[in-house]
Amino acid sequence: MALRLYNSRTRSLEPFAPLQAGRASIYVCGMTPSFHPHLGHARTFLTFDVLRRHLMARGYEVTYVQNVTDIDDRIIERAATEGVPWDDIVSRYLAEYEACAQRLGLLKPDHEPRATREMSAIVDIVNGLVQKGAAYESGDGVYFAVEEGAFPHYGELSHQSIDELRAGVRVAVREDKRGRLDFALWKKAKPGEPTWPSPWGPGRPGWHIECSAMARKYLADQIDIHGGAADLIFPHHENEVAQTETYTGKVPMANFWVHAGLLNVDGQKMSKSLGNFTPLTQILDRYPAAVVRYLFLQTGYRKPSNFTAESIDAAGKGLRGLYADLDALRARAKSNAAPGSRSPAPSPASLEEFDAYLDDDLNTAGAVGWLQTYVKCSLKDGGADASIVVATAQQCLERFGLPSDAESAGLTATSSQVKLNKAARMELSIIAGEREASDLELVEKVISARDDARKAKDWAKSDRLRDALARAGIAVKDTPSGAQWSVDGRS
Questions:
Q1: pTM of the predicted model, to two decimals?
Q2: How far is the CA of 96 from the CAs of 10, 40, 73, 275, in angstroms?
Q3: For the chain, percent helix, then strand, then coil, each to nearest 5?
Q4: Averaged pLDDT for residues 463-486
Q5: What are phi and psi of 442, to 5 degrees?
Q6: According to the model, what pLDDT value does residue 491 have?
Q7: For labeling, which of 196, 197, 247, 428 is most exposed (least CB within 10 Å)?
Q8: CATH fold of 4-124+190-286, please?
Q9: Hey, where are the domains in the chain?
């Protein structure tokens, strides 16, 4: 089955046919480091990380570009509010994002251009558009002449007419432009703002032209896939199409426009004013990055995703269960292995079943369900070759960007995470019959004793041990894969 992707421009599923055989070019709109990265950023970039991994697994040579918009109105406003240089704001929040990206296991982009370092390429395109008569200089900058018909196909990406778009556009105070839909390519200098030289005097680029310049420079006039979050379709991506296709004369700018759905928190749009904005760093301090990945994998990338405490707890339980089943299969494979035998290759037929879901518009939810079922059914099937199942599952996890086991995923407790108070340690020591064991060892011994009680159907003892663990700050969940426990009830 060939990969099919939903193309926002045509609103249809289309077979992926690259511009160059065996190669795939992807440009994704990256961070504007004006504030803390958040879960919405994670959802978007994880989507394209999985797409990139899948294309690579399918044999494509992928060139992935993700830019940094390191100058814009919000950066300048925050710098003024805090009384610091604008590039201090960029350095602070870009470093924060990069640390989060590393924790999430995002593959590094092949190129990560920054707008302020690409001024020559930006000015060249703006100048070219002016010379073509598609843009004009005004008192405060250079504008793309949408309403004078510079690009007859304007609105086709967002599937809106000029009249519909015009009705929804607010003209900013002091914008000196001819039409409501005309947008800034270059902004002339204002007091106190950073500037760069240009034929129209010192100033800085508009937002949209930055991406057009960087996509052309690091990829080509035409690319295979242009991606970003759904809220970028208009005006950002619509304007990119207009200025790039007008400048190059090549259509389309991107064969596929792929957009990740937006994120809600507890059913509401994430917003500082609603009090539901949490920096991504804090989320990753609270939950393992693998669990955040697993949560988003369970929803189709185009659908809105709703983040709740219950949903991420459930994702943690599901991932723990998958790892527990894999551990059981690893133990079986080890016991059955002949001395000196090599690890087997994954099952090609099983990988094709898994890939069929990802080929279907990156259906990660279906692929997750297939993997869970494949592992669980293989565990129940005594005749299944456990070593082949493990090798196959590990390749599937790699394509998801997930670690291969619970320990690597940060889902197993360590001695530093388990700190019992004096009373709890005394109680668990008596139950376990141990005085010298570490806090972690005591918890594990009591968990084991509780498992034995459940197997013996001694429910009263099982409940007593659960209560003792709860008093020690240890929560226990019973699953088909066995007991799962966590500190402070956190998955």
A1: 0.86
A2: 36, 15, 20, 21
A3: 45, 15, 35
A4: 80
A5: -65, -45
A6: 41
A7: 197
A8: Rossmann fold (3.40.50)
A9: 4-124+190-286, 306-400, 422-487
